[in-house]
Fold:
Amino acid sequence: MITKRIIACLDVHGGRVVKGVQFVDIVDAGDPAALAARHAREGADEIVLLDITATHEGRQTLLDTVRRTARELFIPFAVGGGIRSAEDAAQVFEAGADKVSVNSAALANPALIDAIGRSFGAQAVVVAIDARRDPHAADPVRDAQVLVQGGRKLTGRRVVEWAREAEARGAGEILLTSMDTDGTRAGFDCELTAAVSESVGIPVIASGGAGTVDHFTDVFARGKADAALAASIFHFGVSSARSLKEELARAGVSVRLPC
Amino acid sequence: MRVTVIDYRAGNLTSVLKAFRHLGAEVDVTGGDLALVDAADRLVLPGVGHFAATERLASTGLKPAIRAAIARGVPFLGICVGMQWLYSGSSEAPEQPGLAHFAEQCTRFPESKEKVPHVGWNSLEVRAIVGSASRLFAGVERDEFVYFTHSYRAPVTGYTAAVTQYIEPFAAAVERANVMGVQFHPEKSGETGLKILRNFLLWEGKGIA
Structure:
């Protein structure tokens, strides 16, 4: 039976893992390669490394960090941040990533999704979408605003129509972050996740707001998520992916165990 | 242990090379140097992405070289699209014939409420093939998982070494004499995947005639 994935996210700034609470109050939580290996050992199903500063400081993803992190990692490994062209993506793949995550560059140039998919396959393209509910829209959830630059800038796009365009252009997965819940540890935005997941035929990874095991159970059941992403819940010894998955299994969620 | 990996520009080889090197294998990569295929101890055909990419195997002359190596008994492992290429073809690129080592066609998952592609960790039901135990899955327990990412798949037949359920049962792995294929990505399947690759590297050419 296909299982729900628990994805450990490493937000990287200057080659070090950090975790922001809504992208401020950054706390150093260590070395990406060591943390990725630890997450894999402790049962994470996948690793995502996001260079959170790359886009708005105009920096290239730190290829050395990717290379070092990929070296001893034998589970899927996705990398995002600062990938603006198929050539940028090619360098990240060459360094050992299995997937790239594109966000603002894809919004600025949607054909980037097609270009990476053509060269590396749809399975290698994750389109990351940061969205915030729009209380003024007819449907505040389906028409949630798509944001870039860590939630600082509106794009004019709406979450469901952008997710559908990304799929039509050949995205393999959607990584959906709720800017309303990100960093709060108060739970995922299940309505937003379900609205996107039910509108596309590709897997949706829910992100933003994980704080307890019930939040994960909820986003898989009500949110119709195929995978869920968490960073801060793991980093400080609060829990491990394995103990999270054991609790999810007890709650009836299908997960990869033993792992 | 020496293994020759065929590069036909179908996605990214880095992970496959890394996994074999981690297991202590010496890895050669050939993008069209047929002499390397002719001299290979073991051959691996990886591949992610679109079946149409296998056109390059025909245009570079790799296809007859691989066929000859298989006929000599060289252990062969196809991964993902590399497994699908062992069949007659795929509805993903109907104009592009496969090797036809297995007669069947690969087809897309049918429409259903489930998502396509099939992405994630799924379980394996390992089977005996014509009465012999699988070589690839020696030591793999019933409840182990592997990582898949694909929209097309091969049907279950007598040579199916492992069945996975997604929408309906499909061939997660195939074995016939020295020819093996896996639909999942052993290089991305943690310890289970490394065990399967190690089994391929250590197989001494016995079993399943």
